[in-house]
Amino acid sequence: MTKPVIAVYTLGCKVNQYDSDVMAAVLADGGFTVHEGLVPADVYIIDTCAVTAEAERKSRQTVGKIMRINAAAEIYVCGCASQNNFAQFARDGVKFISGTKGKSDLARKLVARYSGREEGGFDKIVSSDFATAGRYEEDGFPLTSRTRRFIKIQDGCNNFCSYCLVPYLRGRSRSRSLSGVLAEVRAAEVDCNEIVLTGINLSAYGNDIGTSLAALLTALQSTPLRVRLGSLEAGVIDEKFLEAAAGLRKFCPHFHLSLQSGDDGVLAAMNRHYTAEQYAEKVALIRRYFPEAALTTDVIVGFPTETEQAFENSRAFCRDTVKFADIHVFPYSSRKGTAAGKMRVLPPETVAARQQSMSEVKRELSADFRLKQLGKPAEVLFESKEDGMWCGHTPNYVKVYSSVGGHNTLSVVTPTALYGDGVRV
Hints:
- By secondary structure, the protein is α/β, with parallel strands linked by helices.
- The protein has three domains: 5-113, Rossmann fold (3-Layer(aba) Sandwich), CATH 3.40.50; 148-370, pyruvate-formate lyase- activating enzyme (Alpha-Beta Horseshoe); 378-424.
- Helices cover 33% and strands 22% of the residues.
- It has helices spanning 14-29, 53-69, 80-84, 103-113, 166-170, 178-188, 213-219, 239-246, 264-269, 276-289, 308-322, 348-371; strands at 5-10, 33-36, 43-48, 74-79, 94-97, 148-155, 174-175, 194-199, 226-229, 254-256, 294-301, 326-331, 378-386, 389-393, 399-402, 409-413, 417-419, 422-424.
- It has a six-stranded mixed sheet, covered by helices on one side.
- It is globular and about 65 Å long.
- Residues 126-131 have low confidence and may be disordered.
């Protein structure tokens, strides 16, 4: 049987990207030609996102985009958006729909089908495998050409923030075995220079299997790779964790510490389990261990209970108290099925104005932090070319542009000027 060309298209977070890369590895091992993105192909797998209404809309629109590329294509859908609403993908061209569980099983079924030993399940659209796993699914290593290798160590979330659908779509927090993580790190050491530990709630790693993120960092202290962390929750920051991070040979001092709001009333309504003061104490502890660290965060503006004063509190906390290196600013997105989804939303013009105001703080703080990097030698992992220059990142995640470099190479350079969204040599 002739094997089709398969394209895997991913929306959403780095965990989704990791899951997609694992599917690609299964397909490649099965002898398929596999591409990434919306490129000409015979078969498409869409790994969808539902973190916001906009992300879900983009996931849904991807089916139409594929049909315009190849009207005869077979389309297979999985991920959070199909877990949330199966029916929105049940249309012409879509062969099969599943959810967040068993993504690699979908790839294995495709291998079986086109190897003449079909296992069934593709004769109609089905909503199977929607129940999320009770334990971490070990699906093998991903296929990737990225210079920074993402290593998924955890899935699911127990936090149930009032605005978030993720616990309902990804299930309860579950951690990958320490041995499984270490095996993938050893494999990565062959051809990459940096790993990024990632998960849906990275800070919860180990809670269900009798270990911790700090213990994992301690176990990684012999690796020669740069080690970077994905998004963290404030609760994981303590001296034991920071000592373990400091013990790594090449720890990247970039802490993406999720905030969401700098106002205590809004934080309580969001079910975030800390106050602004407690968060600031965690920031101070990080800076005691890592004075040059980049502190970045996510902030939601326009939450239903956010008054004008609450927004100003949040804005001042970001700008004056923490002085973040960068902020990812998101307008509140109401999600049916969450506690906040029952609340009355703020007027769109109010949310838009607050997004613009917080984005001004983001730009100001980013420029200030990048200015502080000028004249300081830093090791850069160069990854790709942009504007005719090599681009890469410092350990504290400042983007560097340089006329010299090379794919997947490490070089010590000294930035001399701001440039675009980073600095240049």
